[in-house]
Amino acid sequence: MDGVGGMDGKVALVTGGSRGIGLAAARGLAQLGATVVLVGRTAESAGRAADLLLSEGLDVVPIGCDVSNADEVARMAQELGPLAAVDVLVCAAGVMSSPASRTIRSDPAEWSQVMETNLDGVFHVVHAFVPGMVERRSGRVITVSACLGRFTGPGTAGGLAPYRISKAAVNALTKNLAAEVSSRGVLADAMCPGHCRTDMGGTNAPRSAQEGADTIVWLATREVEGAQTGLLWEDRLVVPW
C-alpha cells in the first residue's frame, strides 16, 4: 500500500479477522511485517483464515473468541501471553441487522445481538488491551464504523436501525476513548470502509475488501507526533461524524 510505513516487530490484533474487512486488514498489516493476532468468532473460522495468510508467507496467530462475551475476551488476553502487548488494535467484528428493521419495529433479540457484537464487543476488547497501551505510552486503536452510522451526510435515514445505531455508538465510544488516551501516546480513530464486496456487503458492492481496509492500515502506521486523532476517516480523509 502506498503511503504507509513498515510494521516489523509490531503486534496487531484484529477482531473480525476471519472474513471481509477484518481479513483484508489482517493481510495488509501482516504484509508490512506485523505479527497479526487474527481473531474469529470460533477457533475454526480463525484457523481457516490464518491458514490462508500463512500460505502467503505471513506471520499470523489465530485465536477464537466471541468478543460479545467479556469472559471470553479476558480469557483471550490471558492466553495470548506476551502477544497481548499489542501495538495496534483493529475492532472489525460486526453483524448486520435486517434491512426492514426500524427503531420502533426491531426484533428485541436481533437488537441485542447487533449491540452485543458491534458495540459491546468493541468495549470488551478496548477494556482488555488499551490499558496496556496506555502503560507503554504507545498504541493505535482503529474501530470499523460505517457511513450508515454517521449523523451527517449520506445514509441518515431508513432501515437497518440496530446496525446504524450500533455504529453511531461505536463512533461515540471512539471519540471518548481518544479524549482519554491521546495524551498518553495512544491514537484512537474510527473509519468507514465504504460499501465493499464482503459477506455483509454482497457481491455487487463497488469496492474490494482490500480497498475498504486501506484506511485501517494507513491509520495503524501513522506517527503519533502531530497526528490528528479522535476522528472519523474515510479513504484517508476526515469526514463529519
UniProtKB/TrEMBL annotation:
The record's section on InterPro entries has: KR_dom, NAD(P)-bd_dom_sf, SDR_fam
- Give the coiled coil ranges: none
**Family, as annotated:** Belongs to the short-chain dehydrogenases/reductases (SDR) family.
GO terms assigned for molecular function: oxidoreductase activity, acting on the CH-OH group of donors, NAD or NADP as acceptor
Name of the molecule in the record: Unannotated protein
Organism (species): freshwater metagenome
Signal sequence span per UniProt? none
Span of domain Ketoreductase = 10-154
Pfam families according to UniProt? adh_short (PF00106)
